[in-house]
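Is this the right way to post structure tokens for a design question? Let me know if I should format differently. Anyway, here goes:
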């Protein structure tokens, strides 16, 4: 009998053993996970072969990305205006935004914004996530540096910045993840304001609109699927919100995991197939199946097969 999690409307079976790595590839910290239009799954981690690609059944297809070793973090798949899907990365070690083809050919690299008022030898730029607006503009969150959001054109030209350390409206405390919300009348920017335990919503020009601060516990990033948001709460669960950003359910919740000594790198005997410990990335395929990447030194990927 398989293991099932979720609630009445969102029930899943755990696909134990999904996505076996070939000999010669070993995960580092698994940070991001994406799915393309063909339901191929892309896993981003901090070792060599930093992007590992599987088909929907978990069969290995190919890998690339040695240049992201150690710095792998933000990871985003987007269909641009040309109708082609591309991968966008943020590298925390090289302080880079990188755009590639789905096979890893580098098309664009953008470094630290030319803002000497924000960055210098002591004040580092450490980008953690990236997203793309409908007009092609690229947004990068400096989640481990000075806590700003930076906007660039599709060609990588600097547009504007906003944020900075704080807890009041418009200020950020570890803007770890960033995504564009297309569910309303106009696009909005959702920022995972992680150490403030909230989502902060901005216009695409950087004006604060509102907070979402219920049912979250260290939110890392976002994945929009239909009218819903799937987001990894690093504190040991995946949270699903409805079109009004209200709670539908938590998946794999383990409220003891992040309280354990040594977390996130716990003894292997601790882990259970139907529980998560440190979810850092999530995506959903066309069937509604959920894929979770966890922030653990040797990686952990879980597939949940949608039942209802």
């Amino acid at each position: 009998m398989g293991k099932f999690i979720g609630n009445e409307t969102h029930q899943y079976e755990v696909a134990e053993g999904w996505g076996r790595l070939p000999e010669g590839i070993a995960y580092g910290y698994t940070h991001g996970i994406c799915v393309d239009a063909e339901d191929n799954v892309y896993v981003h981690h901090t070792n060599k072969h930093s992007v590992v690609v599987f088909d929907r059944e978990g069969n290995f297809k190919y890998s690339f990305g040695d240049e992201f070793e150690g710095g792998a973090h933000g990871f985003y798949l987007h269909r641009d205006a040309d109708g082609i899907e591309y991968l966008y990365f943020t590298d925390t070690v090289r302080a880079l935004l990188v755009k590639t083809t789905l096979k890893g050919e580098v098309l664009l690299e953008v470094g630290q914004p030319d803002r000497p008022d924000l960055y210098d030898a002591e004040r580092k730029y450490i980008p953690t996530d990236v997203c793309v607006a409908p007009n092609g503009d690229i947004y990068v969150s400096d989640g481990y540096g000075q806590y700003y959001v930076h906007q660039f054109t599709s060609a990588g030209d600097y547009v504007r910045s906003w944020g900075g350390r704080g807890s009041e409206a418009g200020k950020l405390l570890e803007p770890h993840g960033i995504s564009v919300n297309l569910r309303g009348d106009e696009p909005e920017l959702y920022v995972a304001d992680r150490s403030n335990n909230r989502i902060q919503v901005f216009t695409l020009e950087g004006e604060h609109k509102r907070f979402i601060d219920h049912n979250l516990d260290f939110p890392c990033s976002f994945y929009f699927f239909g009218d819903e948001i799937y987001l990894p709460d690093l504190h040991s669960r995946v949270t699903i919100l409805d079109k009004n950003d209200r709670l539908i359910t938590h998946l794999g919740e383990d409220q003891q995991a992040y309280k354990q000594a040594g977390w996130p790198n716990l003894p292997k005997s601790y882990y259970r197939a139907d529980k998560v410990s440190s979810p850092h990335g999530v995506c959903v395929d066309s069937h509604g199946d959920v894929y979770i990447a966890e922030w653990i030194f040797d990686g952990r990927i879980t597939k949940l097969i949608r039942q209802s």
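Format looks fine. Someone answered above. Worth noting: The chain has one domain: 4-306. The chain has a mean pLDDT of 98.
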